[in-house]
């Protein structure tokens, strides 16, 4: 056991009125706490230390009856520096304050694991999920240790992506997905051009169709722990990651019209074999803890990716995000340089 391990063990043992078990995610179970917000405020520092080590922490059995108390608990843990959802890619609804629904997606579909907003220049350091109503079956939020993904990927493949990054491509005007106005919060194409210029994004227009491209990182070094992590949306947005029944549709539509796709950082296509190899590394590092009503799961967004399993029955999971971070300040300048066609 290293000195760091001993420090974390001491930290978790110091969380009075609770028991802990597991390592990923760490489960912290209340033993009679009546004031969840007050408890969170007193234990914010040791919980953050435990989060740095474990990557994800579940607070179970605490009195968190509604979204108002959930936001108070998150504020106590984080200091209340809320992060905004930028460059919209999935549907979700505002509930109150800084709280939103989790991604609204058909219950019979899975959502592949991803680090929240890792393709955007500013992204949240920490995510908080609150379970109001667990599904009757399934519906877990799987978590994936992307530090482990980084370590276990083939070094040649990993190092190419680390050096080149990913190119993300989004198409608008095809009748599928969101409009560029709603994604970027603008009304005119001139405003979109200004936004893209500020955010290292190339944009072009052909009649009603608009295409954007931007280069972003594949890996990220944690500013607190110094650990390297596989941190991107590259597989999540890639055409080879579509569910099998959608692959034929993608072939008919053509890659130039797909709402999302990703390329190597030099602009070349990514093969199905490469995506499958990365997916296998994700799968090996992913676990899914079933929700219990009232659970609050805290995720270190650099160290851990998250997704969603299919489910049956009613399910209500709310989300908030904190600690907005400037990715451009952490990544090499070449990995945020505006790409061309």
Automatic annotation (TrEMBL):
Its cofactor is Fe(2+). Gene3D superfamilies: Clavaminate synthase-like (3.60.130.10). Residues 39-320 form the TauD/TfdA-like domain. InterPro entries: AlphaKG_dependent_hydroxylases, TauD-like_sf, TauD/TfdA-like. It comes from the Bacteria. One of its GO terms (molecular function) is oxidoreductase activity. It holds the Pfam family TauD. GO terms for biological process: antibiotic biosynthetic process. Keywords: Antibiotic biosynthesis, Iron, Oxidoreductase. PANTHER family: GAMMA-BUTYROBETAINE HYDROXYLASE-RELATED (PTHR10696), TAUD_TFDA-LIKE DOMAIN-CONTAINING PROTEIN (PTHR10696:SF56). This is Protein AmbC. It comes from Streptomyces alanosinicus.
